[in-house]
Amino acid sequence: MTFRLLYGLDAATGANTRSYLPIERGSRLVALVVGVIVATSCGTPQPTGTSPIAPSVDLCADTQPPVPAGSTNGKLVATINQGRILMAIETAGAGTIALAYIDAGGLHVVPMAHDGTLAHPAWAPDGTIVFDSERAGGRHLFRIATDGSGLTQITREAGSAEQDVSFSPDGGRIAYAHYSCVEERDFGIQVAAADGSNPVALNQPFPLHSVAGEGDAAFSPDGKSVAFVRSVDDSHGAVWVVPAAGGEARRLTSDDLGAAYPRWSPDGKQILFAARWSAGVEDRALWVVPSTGGELRRLFKHGATPWELEGDWSPDGSQILFTVYSPEWDHNELRLAASDGTHERTLWVGIQSTAETPHWGP
User: Is the pLDDT of residue 93 over 90?
Assistant: First the structure.
């Protein structure tokens, strides 16, 4: 689950408003009209083996014309000593304004034309970046180098969408969420070759008009399994693990948590994830669960705020990177901590902007 900070005006009072809303699989922000937020559904994925019919009007089509990329609207306030942290930076109205990464040398923006629909960037093992976007109609996967060269479309099935990509450690396969832009149907997590060919569904597709679905795919460090979230509605879902070659999926958490964004520890023993609920109360926090199943552990002891939304492990597993947001803020922050939740510090602070779906690669 991705969260997007939305700005507007209260229609009754005229006061400025802002809300940090979950952007569920199959939905997208289409317009801000006189401060009123309007959204439409792109549908939910469709089953493997059933080719969606191309719509006369593509419900997922990009409606934002390319414009020169703007500033990153944020400030780096600390440094890292290992790897590279990839993120999409978003602002109200413009969507994603920058594809950027942080390394020991500072913050770097990937030079490319503005694409407000760009989302879920991930490092490929070869050092390139793969993201999903509506730039070509539907929502599909694209690859680009950090210097902005070599932009290539990976998936292109008409009337469908692919997002939340994750690479196998050898770079030969990708796992991703797949759904329809023509009708409300979710096809579930798929695995394909890195060039998008030979896609195979790991689980059964969902019935037409079902509110259930799957997303947030994440390959295990040994490439043998894929963690993912299976949602039962728009706010409840669990972390599951399925063999990457296909087979029976295993549940790791209950649906009551409203799980999102599972990420494997580098040794493959634990899975970090975000949860929306605790004991039936909204309490957005990061948790860790053994990858073989077992007792859950809450990572931080924050109060009701700030919310902890998306996290990832450092390449050596010694640290955690995560985004935080509080309802009274007009931005979010990237923070770092030791893997046991201690020694928390701020890395990046948005300026009326948010860092989304950070990925800490080597």
Answer: no
